[in-house]
Amino acid sequence: MSLLSAFKRPPAALFDDPAAAKQQRGPAYITRDLTKTYGEGRSAVHALRSVDLEITQGELVVLLGPSGSGKSTLLNILGGLDRATAGQVHFLDHDLTLMNDRQLTRYRRDHVGFVFQFYNLMPSLTARENVELVTEIARQPLPADEALALVGLGERLDHFPSQLSGGEQQRVAIARAIAKQPTVLFCDEPTGALDSQTGRAVLRVLADVNRKLGTTVMIVTHAAATAAMADKVLHFADGQIRKVERNANPAAPEDIHW
Amino acid sequence: MLGSWQVAPLTAKLGRDLWRIKGQAAAIAVVIAIGVMMQVMMAGLVASLSETRDAYYQGYRLAQVFAPVARAPENLRAELTRIEGVAQAETRIVGAGRVEIEGRPLPIAARLLSLPDFGEPRLGALFPVSGRGLDASARNEALVLESFAKAHDLKLGEPLTVTMNGHRRQLTMVGRVQSPEFLYTAAPGELIPDDARFAVLWMSRSALAANYDLDGAFNEALLSLTRQARLTAVLAAVDRLLTPYGGQGAYGLEDQFSNRFVSEEIKGLEVSALVVPPIFLAIAAFLLYIVISRMVQAERQEIGLMKAFGYTNIEVGWHYMQLVLAIAFAGALLGCGLGIWAGQALIGLYTQYYKFPFLVFQMEPSAFVIGILAALGSAAAGSLFVLRRLVSLVPAEAMRPPAPADFSRSARWAQGLTGLMDQLSRMILRRLLRQPWRMAGAVLGIASGMGLTLSMLTIYAGFERALDLTFQVLDRSDASVAFLRPMPPDALSALQRLPGVWQVEAQRHVPVVLRNGRHSHKSSLTGLGHQARLLRVVDDKGRQQELPGAGLVLAKPLAKILNVQPGESLRVEVREGARPVLQIPVVGLAETLMGAPVYINLEALNRLLQQPGRINAAALEIEPGREAEVYRQLKDMPLIAGVSLQAEAKQAFETLMDQGAGAMRFVMGFMAFIITFGIVYNAARVAQAERARDLASLQILGYSHSEVAYVLLGELAVITLLAIPLGSLIGHFLSFAIAEGFSTELYQVPARFIPQTHGTAALTVLCASAVSGWLVQRGLAKRDLTAALKSRE
Ligand SMILES: Nc1ncnc2c1ncn2[C@@H]1O[C@H](COP(=O)(O)OP(=O)(O)O)[C@@H](O)[C@H]1O
Ligand SMILES: [Mg+2]
Prior knowledge:
The complex is a heterodimer.
Chain A: H1 2-5, H2 18-24, E1 27-38, E2 45-56, E3 60-64, H3 71-78, E4 86-91, E5 94-95, H4 101-111, E6 112-115, H5 127-135, H6 144-150, H7 166-178, E7 184-188, H8 196-213, E8 216-221, E9 232-237, E10 240-246
Parallel strand pairs in A: 3-8, 3-9, 6-7, 7-8
Antiparallel strand pairs in A: 1-2, 1-4, 4-5, 9-10
Helix pairs in contact in A: 5-6, 5-7, 6-7, 7-8
Chain B: H1 8-20, H2 22-59, E1 65-73, H3 76-82, E2 86-92, E3 94-100, E4 108-115, E5 127-131, E6 141-145, H4 146-151, E7 159-164, E8 167-178, E9 199-204, H5 205-212, E10 217-225, H6 231-242, E11 251-252, H7 257-298, H8 300-309, H9 313-354, H10 365-391, H11 408-413, H12 415-418, H13 423-434, H14 436-474, E12 479-487, H15 490-497, E13 501-516, E14 519-528, E15 552-555, H16 556-562, E16 569-574, E17 581-590, E18 598-601, H17 602-609, E19 615-622, H18 627-635, E20 640-645, H19 646-658, H20 660-690, H21 692-700, H22 705-742, H23 755-781, H24 785-790
Parallel strand pairs in B: 4-9, 6-8, 14-18, 15-17
Antiparallel strand pairs in B: 1-10, 1-11, 2-10, 3-4, 3-7, 5-8, 6-9, 7-8, 12-19, 12-20, 13-14, 13-16, 13-19, 15-18, 16-17
Bound molecules: adenosine-5'-diphosphate and magnesium ion.
Adenosine-5'-diphosphate (ADP) binds next to strand 2 and helix 3 of chain A.
């Protein structure tokens, strides 16, 4: 517990010049030789083969690769949902691979937000209550209404997931993820189940979160066009990073077409 | 099976589905197995016991009619044989006596029976256990009933001191035998069998004739009947023939003590065999319904897809039905196996308990067929409801993205309640309210299990209460004394004068047949003093009932058997002395738990019999510590037929309750617990499976293990807490029904509200709930979160 309370939290305030702020920051994640193997022997699947990577605080990273290349696996390990078979994952000054289950829970609770392809909202709770699910246990939460306003859902607060469209559900999911003011936001195919227009709106929200809250955002996708909005693009194939690209001038999500 | 439909991929799915729900499937299969096991085992026991009984009766030529008479000339046998419907007639001498056993303070009542000097008896043959037969020329040899000899550990060749007709004789036991006529024996005047307190001895006809002054005569005739015989006609004809010789009324086998008891016990088993298995099968059907309904709900997309591919409703339905039938069939097979095993294990014990010398083993083949069909049928019936829903599903369902379940309506329901709750509690409550019928089903299921447990506990307590009421409230004497024949009142004063005797109360027992229209019952009247205090007559509120002038107070079950109410009157055929037939009004009902006694005021009884002042029994209260002294003096009083001690009678009752049909309640209690646990566990598993995805999401959001467990277990806790009061109610009423089933003519099991049993039953459910909760939440800790997210629902 003391280990975790020592984590530094980045200030949640808005930055006047996000680009300048980003340059001052140190790395959020560093992985060394990160390996994940499912199964053993002949039938073993090598989902990650010795991945070395560095993600800077406040960056918007897009992880691009064909399906089955190990993107979700990497995201899950960084997010503390799964454990690596070998190698190290450093988050700020700590090694995730050394944490026990309780510490990982604590880490997720305090630092990580997730957004999934299929939203994973609680069907029994309204939009606001879904967000409150997180604000109830977070240390420095945004008010639920504010988080929902940030994603452009100021009005349908008392609707249940069954009464919301897919795009709206995904925005609730994002509001829920950012309401705790996470250090990092992991999004696994956040637009995968949405039409392109709705998808763009969701990406806009993610970009806003990154810019306005300074949250490190990592988006997994197999849609190459998304890469245009990233600060950094990791090209992934066969469990390995094949290429790292940097965008000096990330495009606005509205200008992306796929 | 269904045309040319190729099942291979679906069969694989079936196998995997079964494997996925293996825990639940096993729990359900076990419940089914228990039902089928009970069916197979009990049907087998009943078949084996009744076959063995019948074979024993036939092989050893048990009489079908018994006709006691004071003294009839031997040549009357030929006339008895000529009665229409009589196949065989045999005569014998029957005498009352006492046996002294070393180490026992009091002599034991004995019945002495004659065997022909030469050859086998025509009726009433004996099964030799050890030793040899009687030597006709030796006057002092006796055969002894095996169960009595065993109870007292009597050795062959051992001398026995027997008082017959007032004379003490030394006899030698030369053989131990069993007889179908004496599978059960009870001390005189008692109803509960007790091997140790009633002796049955056989001697040669000539020896007994000498002792009882019955040379050339008999005092009991035994008859067997032809197939076409009408019992009532034969009894009437026998009575006509024997009345001039002091006939006391012939009676059929059904009124014979031992047979009546054996038949009651077998009947009790038969009733349980009929009632218990369906309860288990119904519960199993309910559990299957829940599992399948959940599965169909979860697989809407797959079902839509199959339909989109062109599978018909029947084909898709059959796929799920196969799953149900596979579980039911596995359970039924397991049940058959267990049934055979348990039947074989128990039948040996039962044969010993019923004292059959051999065993006709019989597994009822129809029980297997019925068991398997009933299991499959009830399982299928439970699931048909679910499959109906499948028909209404449109293929387009498969094309839609997974839609979150709609909670907007259930939320409205509980708006007031959820206002102050945290989100986790809201999730619990709304989910419960979203499918109120499902919740009601789970509550009802757990409540039924608890009801079953509760009623078994109530029955246990009922047996205890029967004991208490009988020996603390109704019969408060320490010993009862039976005289050889009706005595004048000074017999009582002789007892009263014995040092150590505190109180003596006169009684008179008179054998009778009671009739009301076509209902009749062989019984005996118990004449008691106006305000008897040792043997009391009590009404249903526990108040002592006075015995008014002339009128009968009937035990409640007897009033039911005879279909008579206070205010009406009964025809009473006295079976001793001048054998008058009387018409006596019923004036009250008595609360009794043992036997079915009929009470009457002693003076009124004597007046009706025109024998003033006669008594033939007495109840004694003895000063604590002076029992031995009193017994020693009683032993030397020649006119006493027997003395029975309350402590021993109580012991006999307790033994009876723990063996035979009475023991079945322990088996049923255990089964009730298993069922309760099965239902609770199933409810917990369903909750866990349905929420796997939600719970994983919570864990991903950073909720701790215990917080997530709260969501899962909170639901179980709510259901459990709702089930407890309902279970109390169900159990309360069920216990009356089951008590009725357990009650026989011999003893009644009272059911009543006992707060402790409700507490215990509730605790049982809470424990089952806690264990189930612990079992399912264990899975939360070491779960693969990413896999849970990929899973359906
Ligand atoms: N739980 C698992 N067990 C076995 N193999 C898995 C498991 N999860 C993922 N894989 C395999 O690991 C590889 C990478 O999967 P994943 O990270 O989900 O890919 P992506 O997200 O890029 O589509 C794939 O080949 C996949 O089949
Ligand atoms: Mg993926």
